[in-house]
Amino acid sequence: QGSTEIYGRINLTAERQELNGAKDTGIYDNSSRIGIRGTEDLGGGLKAGFVIEHGFNADTGAAAGAMWGRESTVSLGGSFGTIRLGNMPASEGYFATADYVSMHNHDTGSSADALYGFVAIAGTLNSAIAYTSPTVNGLRFDLQYGLKENVKPDAPLSMAVNYDAGAMHLGLGYEEYDGQKSTALRGLWEMGAITVGGYYERGSGTVSYNNFRIAGMYTMGASEFHLNLGKRSGENGLADGDQFTVAYNYNLSKRTRVHVFYTNLDLANGAVDFSSYGVGLRHNF
Amino acid sequence: QGSTEIYGRINLTAERQELNGAKDTGIYDNSSRIGIRGTEDLGGGLKAGFVIEHGFNADTGAAAGAMWGRESTVSLGGSFGTIRLGNMPASEGYFATADYVSMHNHDTGSSADALYGFVAIAGTLNSAIAYTSPTVNGLRFDLQYGLKENVKPDAPLSMAVNYDAGAMHLGLGYEEYDGQKSTALRGLWEMGAITVGGYYERGSGTVSYNNFRIAGMYTMGASEFHLNLGKRSGENGLADGDQFTVAYNYNLSKRTRVHVFYTNLDLANGAVDFSSYGVGLRHNF
Amino acid sequence: QGSTEIYGRINLTAERQELNGAKDTGIYDNSSRIGIRGTEDLGGGLKAGFVIEHGFNADTGAAAGAMWGRESTVSLGGSFGTIRLGNMPASEGYFATADYVSMHNHDTGSSADALYGFVAIAGTLNSAIAYTSPTVNGLRFDLQYGLKENVKPDAPLSMAVNYDAGAMHLGLGYEEYDGQKSTALRGLWEMGAITVGGYYERGSGTVSYNNFRIAGMYTMGASEFHLNLGKRSGENGLADGDQFTVAYNYNLSKRTRVHVFYTNLDLANGAVDFSSYGVGLRHNF
Question: By the CB < 8 Å criterion, does A49 face chain B?
Fold first, then answer.
């Protein structure tokens, strides 16, 4: 019926992990998912749409959280922008900043950004309403608001601005929930074979922190060489953190890729000392 | 393979609800669902088919009950009618009566019929067998029987007759389970822009009641104006009930609609006093 | 997008069962399932693919185990064979032997082989890696290895060889997990309207056993007449067992079939005495 389509991604890595001295070797999932989406042209520039997206662990076959925990929304769009209702994925503030620069593995799995402060976390942006502006001169604005509903301690809020101008891509993200705030600024530049991006995040509230990340990619034919570095300075007892990943991706096609990586995460003088060597296969469908 | 298709509906409403003085504002789900169905022409007038239908709460992304709790059946049809096996949705008795006249929002969400007595409730019509007759001169007969299986206290039974003659649509429903019975008669008339329907249900058993409902719709272009009134007189301690809903639906297309409503439910001298103002978006796919 | 397709099977039987004298009549599921799979041609003889398969009980609508408990894998194939990662279904050793000869109802439901020793059981072949060789002169080799991951007591292993030469089909299966082993040899011959197959399995470890099964099918037009006999001699306290099934299948099409059967299982002098008369409808999609 119309444009209904199935889409998804399976992303599995074989990894040799070490956490505080304990070693393990396994097959690990990297946010595998399947979704169904569709749009309907209503005429007069109006468009209706829906997305339901299910996350699962392809290593075990188990659902990851609620059945449609990654998204279940219905939307109405037009020249005024798009309004969405339902259960939202991670905040637009996150997508505009931390997610945007995590190029080597879509910010999933054991090398995902462990230092970004998810404030309006995925689980709270249910019963939510969102507005996405049209893109005007490269500029787009997003607003998400989750209803409190006598259930949550607070109503989560996230805002984002994305700006694209040729090779330059800027983003601003804001999240706020239950007394905790996160504001982040992101930049990414495409310079031929080289892409460099990064973000700075300021978190404040019960815990406060400054969080920096820089990521670079060098592309050569089907090969991508990645470097990703993050550093968080914690306050109010939040641990300092350091994270880095080096990765090599080989694109067998636009949809399918093999990759190898090494990632390392240190929190607070060894409270967490994690590292992993991985090799993986990612297939989009 | 053949005719397998995905179908479904997302229906969310933003509501201001009040229950016995306690107020809440939220985004609420109205029986959102996704299903997969298909048919196969076996030749000689025979047809095989299947339906699996999953209900979920689009506000949170959580499954609503069992994975295929709304239906999972396989069927074989021919000139003799159709036989279905499996897990059935709500009873045919319900579909022929209460569901049929609940035109303003498919009998879902906070304005759904709260007074109809679901006897052979959805959860019991599993491990069931159903027969649907062919439609002859506008007349169709349905029978559903759920096997007891050393698990249920009783074997649920539901029967329905549907009769269509031009503008007149009549239905008779019967449900029986574990000592409780429901018999209901429904009529609905289409008179140009005006549609008027209603049903009367007699329940008897552990609790007994008389239940009346009338519903009217006035259509003007893409607009629908709805009024829906229900009244139950309880016996054996079952609460009396009153329910009414006024609604305005605007059809953006056959599949997509925006709507506003006010609904009010009173049970037994204020034991339940519920009301809600809502605005919603429903998208079929 | 490309070749993504939905497939599945609903298989329900109405049965009169008797277990150790207790009788029950019901509608029972026979491993109903729905899956989504796809492949992508990567050029140069390479192919990527994925399978996610969900099992459910069509009699109740409930999921059978983990959401994608039947399989969730991604694969990469070429002239070297195929490598798969993820959550695997039952072992290749099982598919090459016990499953292969269970022709009357796909080794599902109450007449499924109750005597085969699942050693590398389905639930353990998660976080697994598998290799399937190309088929050369009718010969194919399979290897499955589940990672232990500081979670399982042992790493499950399964191997299989399949050999096809005209009317003759041979298979060898091996499974090993946590000190228990199973080795089985299977043969199946197609002789016109008659197909005869069987396997012998030797299990050893905590329990040991010899397990024999023979199955025959006589085909006449759309009709199939089946006989299936199994006998297990247990050691180390494992019960002896006898099982037999007679079945008649009528194929309405390649996808849809009705069938009747009688099955009987005896374990250890009446510790389990099970029998069932069934009639069913199976529809593949």
Answer: yes
Q: What is the mean pLDDT of residues A218-244?
A: 96
Are residues B254 and B226 in contact, defined by beta-carbon separation less than 8 angstroms? no
Which amino acid is located at B138 in the chain? G
Count Cβ atoms below 10 Å from residue C137 Cβ, excluding itself.
8
Chain B residue numbers with beta carbons less than 8 Å from the beta carbon of C34 are 36, 52
- Select the residue from B31, B57, B283, B285 to test the A interface by mutation, using most A Cβ atoms within 10 A: B285
SS3 B7: strand
Q: What is the 3-state secondary structure (H, E, C) of B241-252?
A: EEEEEEEEEEEC
Q: Which runs of E-coded beta strand occur in A2-149?
A: 5-19, 22-29, 32-43, 46-57, 62-63, 71-78, 81-87, 128-132, 139-146
Gap between the Cα atoms of B256 and B275, Å rounded:
25
Question: Taking CB atoms and an 8 Å cutoff, what residues of chain A touch C70?
Answer: 61
Q: What is the rounded CA–CA span in Å between residue B248 and residue C216? A: 65
Could you report the predicted ipTM of this complex, rounded to two decimals?
A: 0.96
Cβ atoms of C142 and C128 within 8 Å: the answer is: no
| Residues composing chain C | 285
Which tokens go with A213? 């990340």
Cβ atoms of A77 and A46 closer than 8 Å: yes
Kindly list the distances between the CA atom of residue B135 and the CA atoms of B79, B81, B138, B161, in Å, as whole numbers in the listed order: 10, 8, 6, 10
CATH architecture label of A5-284: Beta Barrel (2.40)
Average pLDDT, chain A: 96
pLDDT 10s digits, C183-223: 999 999 999 999 999 999 999 999 999 999 999 999 999 99
Q: Where are the domains of chain A?
A: 5-284
Residue A115 makes CB contacts below 8 A (sequence gap 6+) with A211, A213, A230, A231, A232, A241, A243
B165 in contact with A, Cβ within 8 Å: no
- Taking all residues of chain C, what is their mean pLDDT, rounded to a whole number? 96
Segments in A56-136 forming alpha helices (H): 92-96, 98-101
Residue B2 has pLDDT above 70, yes or no: no
Is there a contact between B39 and B78 (Cβ–Cβ < 8 Å)? Answer: no
Please tell me if residue B64 touches chain C, with a CB cutoff of 8 Å: no
Which two three-digit tokens encode residue C252?
A: 């309405």
Query: Could you tell me the maximum CA-CA distance found in chain A, to the nearest angstrom?
Result: 62
C137-146: long-range contacts at Cβ-Cβ below 8 A with a sequence spacing of 24 or more?
Answer: C138/C163, C138/C164, C138/C165, C139/C163, C142/C92, C142/C96, C143/C92, C144/C88, C144/C91, C144/C92, C144/C120, C146/C88, C146/C120
The alpha-carbon gap from A152 to the nearest alpha carbon of chain B, in Å, equals 11
Question: Helix, strand or coil for residue B131?
Answer: strand
- Chain A contact for B222, CB < 8 A? no
Annotate A126-174 with DSSP letters as a single string: -SEEEEEPPPBTTEEEEEEEE--TTTSSS--EEEEEEEEETTEEEEEEE
Residue C124 CB coordination number (10 Å)? 23
B60 closest CA partner among A181, A266, A127 = A127
Distances C272 to A254, A262, C114, C266 between C-alpha atoms, Å: 56, 54, 11, 6
d(CA A47, CA A76): 6
Residue B78 corresponds to which tokens in the numbers above? 């021919």
Chain B closest-CA separation from residue A4 CA (Å) = 7
Tokens of residue C144, six digits: 């499955």
CA atoms within 13 A on the CB side of B194: 4
Answer whether A134's CB lies under 8 Å from A80's CB: yes
Q: Measured between CB atoms, does A12 come within 8 Å of chain C?
A: yes
pLDDT in tens, A170-216: 999 999 999 999 999 999 999 999 999 999 999 999 999 999 999 99
